[in-house]
Amino acid sequence: xAAFFGADEIWSRNTGTFGGETVILxxxxxxxxxxxxxxxxxxxxxxELAELAAACGMKVAGTVTQRLPAPDQALYVREGKADEIxxxxxxxxxxxxIFNDTLSPSQLRNLQRTLNLPxxxxxxxxxxxxxxxxxxxxxxxxxxxxxxxxxxPRLVGLWExxxxxxxxxxxxxxxxxxxxQLEIDRRTIDHRLTELRxxxxxxxxxxxxxxxxxxxxxxxxxxxxxxxxxxxxxxxxEMLKRWSPDKTADKRQVFEADMLFATLDTTVRKIEPERxxxxxxxDTVGFIHxxxxxxxxxxxxxxxxxxxxxxxxxxxxxxDAHCLDHVQVTMDTIKELGAxxxxxxxxxxxxxxxxxxxxxxxxxxxxxxxxxxxxENVYVSAKDPASIDFLTGVILDKLEAxxxxxxxxxxxGRGDVLSFxxxxxxxxxxxxxxxxxxxxxxxxxxxxxxxxxxxxx
Length: 457
Fold this sequence. Notes:
By secondary structure, this protein is an alpha/beta fold. It folds into three domains: 7-193, Rossmann fold, CATH 3.40.50; 219-401, P-loop containing nucleotide triphosphate hydrolases (Rossmann fold, 3-Layer(aba) Sandwich); 403-456, no CATH class. The protein contains 15 helices and 14 strands. The chain has helices spanning 7-15, 39-55, 79-92, 105-115, 122-133, 137-151, 155-165, 175-217, 232-243, 293-298, 300-303, 323-336, 385-401, 415-424, 445-456, and strands at residues 22-30, 59-68, 96-99, 119-121, 221-226, 267-271, 279-283, 311-317, 344-349, 366-368, 375-379, 403-410, 425-433, 436-444. The strands form three sheets. The protein has a seven-stranded mixed sheet, sandwiched between helices. A hairpin with a 6-residue loop joins strand 10 and strand 11. It starts with 6 loop residues before the first helix and ends with a helix.
């Protein structure tokens, strides 16, 4: 009789354990069509794949590439290249092959039959890293949702490989049992996916409550966004050291390390500079080229924190040769989230490193883009206290620049307008008159314009 496994056991049993393995990396350089890659972009993509493998503790024994107008529909690579991969694996003792793109269920199944080795793709590798980095309940639920969503359509191919590795064949094979187990696995996954979606809805409600409490504090929200490993967590920690409202800055810092996806959990901290208003600073999960769609969907509610920000800080590793590509990835993701209208400061971090593809000016210099008000470029080094002071000043200037002070007389029957002003600005009730409540509000120009329109209805 087939055994019943939980969701975690299903994943582990079907994919094996990542970490400490010797692996072969394989990628297709697409030279035509919408997915065309330049030689430089393809090389950078493979470098990222190697970094992802290293983040899982894997040792890369070799890399195999093939130039094609499009990936092979059956095997991703052509049959001859698959034979080359299998031979290299035999020579190096590699235990798994990691492919640079997301494999379809049929490609995964066919590759594992041909290679007689476990195969994984870029998505699976990122999922493993996310699972290791997740700390909060919400992040763990989001990762599990993405993993099971990825696993479900691939169960047949993964089960075949694991079953074949067991060594049984012919009349003694466990084909019947495998098919029974497959159905149990599918039902288990479906049940768990339903539970996860229900739990995440509850978490979303809890986040909405926290959001309302933040709004009641009337503090502006500044959100750090950007490519993974650009220095977002470092900037948050350094600002905490410099401008923490109490003596517990060390305890309130977030994990930072020179690795991809060092942190996943959205963190909000209060920053109280010597001058200007205090503000809330949030750190968000980093972006990457071709972030798996399942992860984008699973983390969508977390990433939506950026939509509530008064100001976005895009952090860029200016020492990376592909930093301008990283800027584009971040901008595209922000637009997809519906946050493209929010004012932004682009912080080119690591300005202390001599080798930069930007040829940028000295640390501390700021440049306004053509539109001036919407975007601004700043060059800093996150570990330099003077840079943190300078960046804080730029943030405060930006927060103040977009604010106006207005006095409204709100009719007593228009509680919706008063509530809107209280939630979206700093409001002080001056007096109660016969014609309504007189309130002085400091708010963004957009909020003031909307309040004017509401009062004219």
